[in-house]
Amino acid sequence: MLDSLVTSKTRIKLLLKFFSHNNSGYLRSLAKEFDESTNSVRVELNRLTEAGLLTAGEEGKTKVYRANQSHPFFDEISKMVSKFLGLDTLVEQVVKRMGEVEKAYIIGDYAKGVDSGTVEMVLIGRNLDLDYLEFLKNKTFEKINRKVAVSIHESEPEGLMGIMIFGK
């Protein structure tokens, strides 16, 4: 979906990085992370900054980029990125039919804004339907071509770092 609207693969990677979670980055680290030339990343960073989608600020001698949360399209782009990653559908289905889900977190690479191909989730709850979870994992892979790794806990593990996508 997103790749048919946005033709630059580098721009897609940048949108995923900055709009899937409140990440920041600088030119050389982004080029290394994406395995792209600094020039191609620079061109796309400039385009997104000129469009107002990213902000650029100085941290020491380094220019750091972030998603512009005050841009009128920030929420819509974040939702598009989430749909592209398939997280909205996955979470909705998990919460509706899995059982007593109290909280759900995205952890790992996706929580950092990196599209690694594997979505890591932590579910907090009891009496969860593990057969249905396996079905959802397979369906998600078929639909968005990404693996889903899920760990289940009855209570929230100490020091859990990630994005809460369901719960309070």
From TrEMBL:
<dbReference type="InterPro" id="IPR036390">
    <property type="entry name" value="WH_DNA-bd_sf"/>
</dbReference>
<dbReference type="InterPro" id="IPR036388">
    <property type="entry name" value="WH-like_DNA-bd_sf"/>
</dbReference>
<dbReference type="InterPro" id="IPR011991">
    <property type="entry name" value="ArsR-like_HTH"/>
</dbReference>
<dbReference type="GO" id="GO:0006355">
    <property type="term" value="P:regulation of DNA-templated transcription"/>
</dbReference>
<protein>
    <recommendedName>
        <fullName>PaaX-like protein</fullName>
    </recommendedName>
</protein>
